[in-house]
Amino acid sequence: MPDLTSIPKGKILQRTGERYTKVYRVKKGLLRSYIIDAKGKEHIFMFAPEGWIIADSHPPDTACDLFIDALEDTEVLILEKDLQSPNLNTAALLRRIAVLQERVLMLMSTPALERYQHFTATYPNLLQRVPQRMVASYLGITPEALSKLKSEWHRKR
């Protein structure tokens, strides 16, 4: 079993274009993965709080698409990209795939308010841990639209 590695807040674990990237299993803290488009805008792909895993899906010998960084001081297990590895929790990986599939389908077909509600159900304690601009990026909306959505949601509750 690999040792826990401490990652300070703000450290970039992976950059777009790198090869031989790893899988990170979060024991404590919070990681995120994202891309930066040609205009310099960040688009958050996923968050990984405690108990989650995060990685780029490309095979180890090909260039990755995603940046991965620490949003908080974090402790992780760093694993090789080997689906046969006993250290890679297959159940956690399948849960992650299911969440991503649901997110992609929601982005294609669901109103922003429903995406926000799904975000709060999937990540119940992240609203206090990440800036609103990152939540908006994850939802595919502007921070201003998120503010309006939150006001609307709280009025209805």
Which key terms come to mind for this protein?
single chain; 157 residues; alpha+beta; four-stranded antiparallel β-sheet
Task: Please outline the helices and strands.
Layout: E1 4-7, E2 12-14, E3 23-28, E4 31-36, E5 42-48, E6 53-54, E7 67-70, E8 74-79, H1 90-109, H2 112-122, H3 132-139, H4 143-156
Antiparallel strand pairs: 1-8, 2-7, 3-6, 3-8, 4-5, 4-7
Helix pairs in contact: 1-2, 3-4
In which order are the strands of the major sheet placed? 1-8-3-6
Overall mean pLDDT score?
Answer: 86
For the largest beta-sheet, the strand count, sense and barrel status come to:
4 strands, antiparallel
Strand content: 15-25%
The helix/strand class is alpha+beta
Shape, principal axes of CA atoms:
globular
Nearest-angstrom radius of gyration? 16 Å
Note the gap between the termini.
Answer: 46 Å
Individual helix count: 4
Provide the helix percentage. 25-40%
Number of strands: 8
Low-confidence stretches: none
Secondary-structure element order, N to C: EEEEEEEEHHHH
Description:
The protein is of the alpha+beta class and 157 residues long. The chain has 4 helices and 8 strands. The protein has helices spanning 90-109, 112-122, 132-139, 143-156; strands spanning 4-7, 12-14, 23-28, 31-36, 42-48, 53-54, 67-70, 74-79. A hairpin with a 5-residue loop joins strand 4 (31-36) and strand 5. It is globular and about 50 Å long.
What would you say about this model in short?
The chain has 4 helices and 8 strands; from the N terminus they run E-E-E-E-E-E-E-E-H-H-H-H. It has 157 residues and is of the alpha+beta class.
